Predict the structure.
Amino acid sequence: MKLTVIGKYGPYAKSGSHAASCYLVSQGETNLVMDMGPGSMSRLTEKIDIEKISALFISHLHYDHTSDLLAFRYRLEELNLKIKIITQTHDTPWCALLLDHPLFEVIPVKAGDEITVGDFRLKFYDMNHTVPCLAVRIEGEKTLVYTGDTVYNDNIITAAQGADLLLADTSKPAGFTGPHMNVEIAKELSAKLGIKILSTHLSPGYDPQADLADCPSVEVAQEGKEYEI
Ligand SMILES: [Zn+2]
């Protein structure tokens, strides 16, 4: 089971060849894409043919996790290829603009649901963000948990219990109190869970590497890197 970081930034990508939130989880023929922030489509197609994507999971509907879905639809139209989009749905104009498309097969999910995508078993957990957000626990040969965007909440502990890797929105500086977690919380989570954490959702102007240097169990996500879980 392998995780490839396509884009790690938020709320927008650092200048250059970078992208906001997008991750690829693969095992055998199963390829699950998680979020599609701005800049991600180009970088994603460096790693995988669109035809080989099993499904997309969208953690929440903020622009920095979804905007390249719109360009992605053009490519699906060229290929006449239908794809599954796993996400919470809402009765809002943005949700309709983003997801109402004949080549999107929307699979609405909520906390507590469990579904299968190829070789993966997916479970969903409510997070605490400025809009509804789901974490996903992906069980295959190994177990990966992705928090989406959130502040600290006990559901993270429940979701990540016994997992092999936690991909977590924990890249804000110590003392940050907005709708994301900071590097100090990353260290606390790692100690509490006893598992490795990949810290992501970096602000373009802040590199958490130095602040995490004293905690080897928390690693800063690297774009383009493939992590064997
Ligand atoms: Zn967000």
Q: What stands out?
A: DSSP finds six helices and 14 strands in the chain. The mean pLDDT is 97. Residues 60, 62, 129, 149 surround zinc ion (CB under 6 Å).
